[in-house]
Amino acid sequence: MTRPTVSRTTSFTRTELTVYTLGFLAFFLFGLVQAGYGPSYPALGREYGQPVTVVGVVASLHFAGSAVGTLLLGALLTRLSLRSSLMVAALGLVLGLLGVALSPSWTLLLVGATLGGLSFGVLSAGLNLAFAELGAGPSNLVNGLFGIGSVVSPILVTLLAKGSHGPPFLLMAVMAAALAVGLRLLWPKPEQGAAPIPNTAQASTVQAQSETPGQPVLSKTVPLHSPLPRPAPLPRRVLTLFGLCFFLYVGIEAGYGNWATTYFARLGADQPELLTSFYWLALTAGRFASAALGSRFGPLQVLSFATGGAMLGSALMLLGGLRLAPYGLVLAGFCIAPIFSTQLAWFTRSQPPRLAPYMLTLGSVGGAVLPALTGLALPRLGAASVPLAPLIIAALLLLCVTLLHRQLAGRPTVPDLLAP
To answer: Are residues 80 and 199 in contact, defined by beta-carbon separation less than 8 angstroms?
Structure first.
């Protein structure tokens, strides 16, 4: 489901190199932040006197804030340029991370996690929009840095969080401050040729002036040789199924990342944070592998393989004990890697891409709700709830994917907009 990238014959300009550098820093930081909460649960519980069922709400508030932030970007862009919106969000992320690192009370720590998540959502959505304008290749490249940050984060927690959970988050706050300064000094200003993304009120005007009916607005670097028809609106039940797919997937990814450390600690592993890092490493490797191979298979094939692998990996974690559980986690991480990009490509080929942010928001909501439910199940089911939850969620995702395939069978898709 990957799209071919637009070939280029000219070298990178200084502005492009600057944007890439800031993008690499930002997405690496995103990986550090998102993967840093789960390995910190044991320390947070000790320092603030909270049971494990409550500690998980930290990551849930992060994802809830991220969901709101994705939508907030649209409101910010009605008044600010993309550059200014990203700067505001970077400063908010600094404050949120400082709140998580230094808060004297549990309540203030939760406020910091929420503010950090909100800013994370604005930054992530804004930078994804910016790199999407450069093509699928650049977008995949910077998102690969997210995976690397996710691998490094549990190791960082292991090395720095010896006596307190705070040092890793302080380091992330310093990186967020560097990003804010970089955006202020180096990100191209609108008058330098990087025009801000049109706000929602202007979008319809831009579309009316620059498109044939239904034709998406694209970067000038991606010329269209013929008008593209708008697909007929999908039935509401199909949109609901797509929304459920995003909701369930992010719940799986976040559930493994947030609770794997707790699970392996309860099994008696010596370095549970390191095992969580292996999960993120497998996820990153799976994304690079899917980028190379995913275009050869249809969405039903890819998603069936991915959900099946997640169920098998969860079963190994549930039944294999400490000897096989790490292999199950790595297998699950590798197999779920192509789910998000495949679902997003599937959705944008059957609906206008401008509806995609709503799917991303539903994904963030899933990342907030489903791992929290796992935490609530811990007192009743014990450590088994950690692999049992993604096992059930993956089965539900496979059901939704199968129903979607039946609903969309025979329906025309949107032509590949990035094809030469």
So the answer is: no
Please, what is the average pLDDT of the chain? 80
Q: How far apart are CA 361 and CA 387, in angstroms?
A: 25
Contacts of 181 (CB under 8 A, 6+ apart): none
- pTM score > 0.70 for this model? no
Q: Is 88 exposed, middle or buried (0-12, 13-18, 19+ CB in 10 A)?
A: middle
Tracing tokens 């030469």 back to the chain, one arrives at: 420
How many other CB atoms sit within 10 Å of the CB of residue 257? 26
Asked if residues 417 and 6 have their Cβ atoms less than 8 Å apart, the reply is no
Please report the domains of the chain, with CATH numbers, ordered by start residue: 14-193 (1.20.1250.20), 227-413 (1.20.1250.20)
Query: What residue type is assigned to position 69 of the chain?
Result: G
Tokens of 294: 């995913």
**Per-residue three-class SS string for the chain:** CCCCCCCCCCCCCHHHHHHHHHHHHHHHHHHHHHHHHHHHHHHHHHHHCCCHHHHCHHHHHHHHHHHHHHHHHHHHCCCCCHHHHHHHHHHHHHHHHHHHHHCCCHHHHHHHHHHHHHHHHHHHHHHHHHHHCCCHHHHHHHHHHHHHHHHHHHHHHHHHCCCCCHHHHHHHHHHHHHHHHHHHHCCCCHHHCCCCCCCHHHHHHHHHHHCCCCCCCCCCCCCCCCCCCCCCCCCHHHHHHHHHHHHHHHHHHHHHHHHHHHHHHHHCCCCHHHHHHHHHHHHHHHHHHHHHHHHHCCHHHHHHHHHHHHHHHHHHHHHCHHHHHHHHHHHHHHHHCCHHHHHHHHHHCCCCHHHHHHHHHHHHHHHHHHHHHHHHHHHHHHHHHHHHHHHHHHHHHHHHHHHHHHHHCCCCCCCCCCCC
Q: Cβ of 388: how many Cβ atoms within 10 Å?
A: 18
Residue 88: per-residue pLDDT: 94
User: Residue 5 has what pLDDT?
Assistant: 40
Phi and psi of 380, rounded to 5°? -90, -40
Is 158 within 8 Å of 39 (Cβ atoms)? Answer: yes
pLDDT digits (tens, 9 = 90+) for 52-87: 778 989 988 998 899 899 888 877 877 888 889 999
| pLDDT the model gives residue 196 | 41
Structure tokens at 319: 């039944």
